[in-house]
């Protein structure tokens, strides 16, 4: 049974940093690509970052240059390092795992499995 468990959320002042973790179990970690999403009430879910099975990464425009997605293939943990946080980064952050379709620039990542979410609050 696939399980994804996020941790690391919390409250921080603008300009600060947080590192989110997503512990994965129940499957071969590298067999799925993984993503971080975020959502606030009344807004559409936003793709924050993606890491593909070959290690390539992709970021949403609002976080590029500030956030870094990475994966520890030994510990089976996905990370999201968030620096220079802004109040508009406040959201519930979710990790997801799914099948990768394609490779390279045109690769897509499904999101079949989801974690429960972790709250990030950035105050000004």
Would you kindly provide a written description of the structure presented here, covering whatever features stand out?
The chain is mainly β and 124 residues long. The chain has strands spanning 3-7, 10-13, 18-25, 33-39, 46-51, 57-59, 67-72, 77-82, 91-98, 100-101, 108-109, 113-114, 118-123. The radius of gyration is 14 Å and the shape is globular. The mean pLDDT is 96.
Number of discrete helical segments? 0
Largest sheet: 7 strands, mixed
What ranges have pLDDT less than 50 throughout 5 or more consecutive residues? Answer: none
Order of helices and strands: EEEEEEEEEEEEE
Nearest-angstrom radius of gyration? 14 Å
Share of residues in strands:
over 45%
Distance N to C terminus: 40 Å
Average pLDDT, rounded to a whole number, is 96
C-alpha geometry: globular
Kindly name the structural category. mainly beta
- Helix proportion range: under 10%
Number of strands: 13
Task: Write a brief caption for the model.
The chain has 124 residues and is an all-beta fold. Helix content is 0%, strand content 52%. Strands 2, 4, 5, 6, 9, 12 and 13 form a 7-stranded mixed β-sheet that branches.
Attribute tags:
124 residues; mainly beta; globular
Write the layout of secondary structure elements.
Blueprint: E1 3-7, E2 10-13, E3 18-25, E4 33-39, E5 46-51, E6 57-59, E7 67-72, E8 77-82, E9 91-98, E10 100-101, E11 108-109, E12 113-114, E13 118-123
Parallel strand pairs: 2-13
Antiparallel strand pairs: 1-3, 3-8, 4-5, 4-9, 5-6, 7-8, 9-12, 9-13, 10-11
């Amino acid at each position: 049974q696939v399980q994804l468990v996020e941790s690391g959320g919390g409250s921080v002042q603008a300009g600060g940093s947080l590192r989110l973790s997503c512990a994965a179990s129940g499957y071969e970690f590298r067999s799925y690509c993984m993503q971080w999403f975020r959502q606030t009430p009344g807004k559409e879910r936003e793709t924050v970052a993606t890491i593909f099975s070959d290690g390539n990464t992709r970021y949403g425009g609002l976080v590029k240059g500030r956030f870094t997605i990475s994966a520890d293939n030994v510990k089976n943990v996905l990370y999201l390092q968030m620096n220079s946080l802004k109040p508009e980064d406040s959201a519930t952050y979710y990790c997801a795992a799914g099948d990768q379709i394609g490779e390279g620039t045109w690769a897509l990542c499904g999101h079949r499995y989801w974690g429960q979410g972790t709250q990030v609050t950035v105050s000004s």
